[in-house]
Amino acid sequence: MDVVTFGETMLRLSPPGHERVEAADRMDVRVAGAESNVAVTAGRLGAETAWLSKLPASPLGRKVAATLRAQGTTPEVTWTDRDDLRQGLYFLEQGGEPRGTTVHYDRQDAAVTTATADELAPAFVERAGYLHTSGITPALSETLAATTADLLELAQETGTTATLDVNYRRGLWSHEEARDTLEALFPDVDVLFVAERDARGVLDRTGDADAIARGLADEFAFGTVVLTRGEAGALAVRNATTVTQPVFETETHDPIGTGDAFVGGYLAARVDGGDVEDALAWGAATAALKRTIPGDVALVTRADVESVLADEHSGIDR
């Protein structure tokens, strides 16, 4: 197994167009979760991937698993039939300025919040090249914070490269709570992905982008730090060397999941033998493609990404 991810996946319900949830009489239903997004993307780009989680043994839980399998990853799921545990949902209202896009979560008592490392097929982690999770997962419950720590520790013990995307969500916890929890996990993390805004706001870092990435790498002994910078592109520090990558021009239809697409593209390139420079380019190209696709998942192919990269190198105006 090349890449195993661990985290919550929800169902996303969206009214058509820019309608409000309260006025909608129908909604689109999609499967959405940071870690499963990464697994699907990397899988579609050639990596062998699996997603570890816990779901209710219900039609909604089965929909999540079936959709992820159809999209290109193996859902390695612990099922529960407890009546008090359910499938998490979120509602997305697309809106232009000044209203903006709004998310309404309905994830209380989701089955995944009770998942322990022992019930999540740890053998998948032991055999994987990479284990990926995000800062969303330990924010969801004390149990998941402990489970995340256990799986990252297992990855270190078995030689699996552990990657973590800070992926801060202000509705889940404060900057201080996130910083304390995540920094306790960092010793077992090999590759850190973090948006520059989160490095500054959550991890309390100062200086320019290069100084932030180098400071994190030095303090926590990360093998690689990848700093995503929005329109400014991305930057990575590995072995005291800095590599930069600009964004690719794109027409945005749905920005949700862009960061997950970047990570999925990055990991797929590394699995395929690419260096950090290659991986940043694949991540940026995959992220640009995701913004043209409705839903949270980058339903792309290797040919799609290679086309973006080839056009950029040839100077073609897309």
Automatic annotation (TrEMBL):
Superkingdom of the organism of origin: Archaea
EC assignment: 2.7.1.45
Transferase as a keyword? yes
MF annotations from Gene Ontology: 2-dehydro-3-deoxygluconokinase activity
Reply yes or no: does the keyword DNA repair apply.
no
* Domain (Carbohydrate kinase PfkB): residue spans on this chain: 2-295
Q: What class of enzyme is it?
A: transferase
For this UniProt record, the keywords arranged alphabetically read as follows:
Kinase, Transferase
Q: Which Pfam family is one of this chain's hits?
A: PfkB
Q: Which PANTHER family match?
A: 2-DEHYDRO-3-DEOXYGLUCONOKINASE_2-DEHYDRO-3-DEOXYGALACTONOKINASE, SUGAR KINASE
Q: Which family does it belong to?
A: Belongs to the carbohydrate kinase PfkB family.
Q: What is this protein called?
A: 2-dehydro-3-deoxygluconokinase
Q: Which organism is it from?
A: Halobacterium salinarum
